[in-house]
Known about the structure:
Pfam families: BTB (PF00651). It comes from Cirrhinus mrigala (Mrigala). This is BTB domain-containing protein. By secondary structure, the chain is an alpha+beta fold. The protein contains ten helices and eight strands. The chain is about 35% helix and about 15% strand. Residues about 150-195 have low confidence and may be disordered.
Amino acid sequence: PIKANEILPPEKGxxxxxxxxxxxxxxxxxxxxxxxxxxxxxIRAALISRRHLQFWxxxxxxxxxxxxxxxxxxxxxPPPVIVIPPPPSTTEEHPGRLLEEPLCADVVLxxxxxxxxxxxxxxxxxxxxxxxxxxLQDVKAEADCKQPTGREPPARAASFDMCxxxxxxxxxxxxxxxxxxxxxxxxxxxxxxxxRGGRLLSSLGRAFVSIRRETVQDPVTFITRxxxxxxMDPSVLxxxxxxxxxxxxxxxxxxxxxxxxxxxxxxxxxEVFDLRMMVANILNNEAFMNQEITKAFHVRRTNRVKECxxxxxxx
Length: 315
């Protein structure tokens, strides 16, 4: 085994080369680094040493002296492997409990002017393109308020679940969405307009009225801290909205839920077309098909979380 005192630092090698009056090179037989440099420059040194001979003087005129060795640049490390664990099966660890006990909540959704729902941006943004666009604008607005750092904010998503829906006939027919969960960057200028007490949202549809930063008391720790406050459209009712929120967290919809049409209305506002499809399946007595939609939901969420982590979005 090699001992620590047997390893010579590069400074020692340079000192010896300086004493001998020769160039200094480092090599690695394992990585093949520097081997060609040593041979090429040894040949140069040998040829230059013969320049004083009359026969070689004209032939060796263009030979360079031994060149300095370029520093070794280690290869770029591979990107970190991001592993998203599967959704937990136990009730205590299920994402749905975060709605009942919103620990570390960072957004407050205000309904009917006084009803508050605490939630988490990463859950909402990775399940709904509308929330993704909304919170990304909030991030950009915060960045504009600070000193410029030269780093551009991440690109917004055009839509996670965009697909067309057919007209309602005698049989409910709401189409599902097919998406691989990738984030597509598009231009997002002109989304926000100046508003009193916050920013009015004019181009993100009817789901949101305004967004602003406020100091809010945490519902779990009761500690006052700044959060993002979003005022929702007045047509959004608390009961159906909680059902939609549970879907955004868990990807599931109880087939015994009441007021399914209002749930579909909120899903339409938020462009969560898979939820609309689940409502249609329940109304058409085909609730068994919702299991596949839930599986696809978790696959897309995994891809979106990976991409958000890779881009540093919301972190």
